[in-house]
Amino acid sequence: MALTSIVRTTLAAALGIAAAGPALAVTELQWWHAMVGANNEAVMKLAEEFNASQSEYKVVPAYKGTYPETLNAGIAAFRAGTAPHIIQVFEVGTATMMAAKGAVKPVYQLMKEVGQPFDPNAYLSAITGYYSTAKGEMLSFPFNSSSMVMWVNRDALKKAGLDPNAPPKTWPAVFEAAKALKAAGYTTCGVSNTWVTWAHLEQLSAWHNVPLATKANGLDGFDTTLEINGPLQVKHLANLAEMQKEKLYDYSGRYDNGFGRFTSGECPLFLGSSGSYGNVRGNAKFDWAAAPMPYYPDVAGAPQNSIIGGASLWVMGGKSAEEYKGVAKFFAFLSDTERQARIHQTTGYLPITRAAYEKSKADGWYDKNPALEVPIKELTNKPPTENSRGLRLGNMPQMRDVWAEEIEAALAGKKTAKQALDEAAARGNAMLRQFEKQAGR
């Protein structure tokens, strides 16, 4: 035995404690995230389970605010040399992370370098495509993926004389349902939504197979130009502005803080994340369901397929080989079929692996909880096209605010739908050129 080991053992014995060698040292892995409420509880439970499953690594979750705040905190920490090992970034932050040279460690490289078994084909392609290169190389690890569904208050439909088992499928049918709901007493809001640009520009475009931007919505290059002011988008915004006048449609803000208007019963039809399943299940005091997003029947081929929302886990650069080994082990832990099925079934977020989806089907989970399969069916409705694979636009978090500002002007009657979206495209293109210039350095 080496002298240092003898000294350590003797000291430990004298102090009445067990000898602690280097092998027992625990490597801490910092995980920054943006989850709140029930989803925060899920994050904490996953970390606790992983930490209890082995003794080499300890994942330490830390809430860092909203999605944009968490992204900004991660960028600032990297510049200061204090970045976490793992950071949760919402889907529209993908281009920002890709352009941060040296700031991230691509997941496909990480898994290969540490020798962790990893099969990209085990994950749902509708999800991984968003976070992969054109060659199919996964840049980040899918974590809480969602899509947009239409949450339905079945009791309200029944009260309005509508069939609660057949929610409106098309936008014209939604407009008519909103009129019936208003007549039945829902005078402040017939239909609304969270994340206004995700609902009425991003998902709308993909669902109808029309481009949001050139270059496959930016997936094929940062030198992309916005096409958010096309005929479909302009027509849709004009329809919403007209409905807003009579509160058939009523705006609920740029982000997701207006979702309580659905769970409270105020807005009977509500476009929102499928990841709100736990919120609806816990807070809605009425008979509810989830239905696919509405579409315009006069658009050829609609509906196409939806795109994902939610977030993925990015691995930050500059860490040690041992730390990366722990991160890879944690990702393998998260991919376990039983665990993925449980996350999906309790949170409403999508199962990231094919096996977890198949297990949920085999267990009869969707027979009892049909709302959970709606977003999966939307994502896989048809093979993705260049217009529906996803989007990867620089400065996207900031650009969403610009788009929302113009949409708000149209809804308030200050601009026509065409004027608003033309201005949104022009302002957004200026931001894209700025990002392209910075990314090319």
Keywords:
single chain, 441 residues, six-stranded mixed beta sheet, 10 strands
Helix and strand layout, with pairings?
Blueprint: H1 3-15, E1 27-33, H2 37-53, E2 57-63, H3 67-80, E3 86-90, H4 94-99, E4 104-105, H5 107-114, H6 125-128, E5 141-146, E6 148-153, H7 154-159, H8 171-183, E7 191-193, H9 196-207, H10 214-217, H11 231-245, H12 260-263, E8 269-273, H13 277-283, E9 288-291, E10 309-316, H14 321-334, H15 337-347, H16 354-362, H17 365-368, H18 374-379, H19 396-411, H20 417-439
Parallel strand pairs: 1-2, 1-3, 7-8
Antiparallel strand pairs: 3-10, 4-10, 5-10, 6-8, 6-9
Helix pairs in contact: 5-14, 9-11, 15-16, 19-20
How would you describe the shape?
globular
Helix count from the secondary structure assignment:
20
Write down the Rg. Answer: 24 Å
Sketch the topology as an H/E string, one letter per element. HEHEHEHEHHEEHHEHHHHEHEEHHHHHHH
Strand content: 5-15%
Low-confidence stretches: 1-22
Amount of helix: 40-55%
In terms of quaternary structure, what is this?
single chain
Find the count of extended strands (DSSP E, 2+ residues).
10
What does the main sheet amount to?
6 strands, mixed
The average pLDDT is 91
- How far apart the termini lie comes to 55 Å
The helix-and-strand class reads alpha/beta
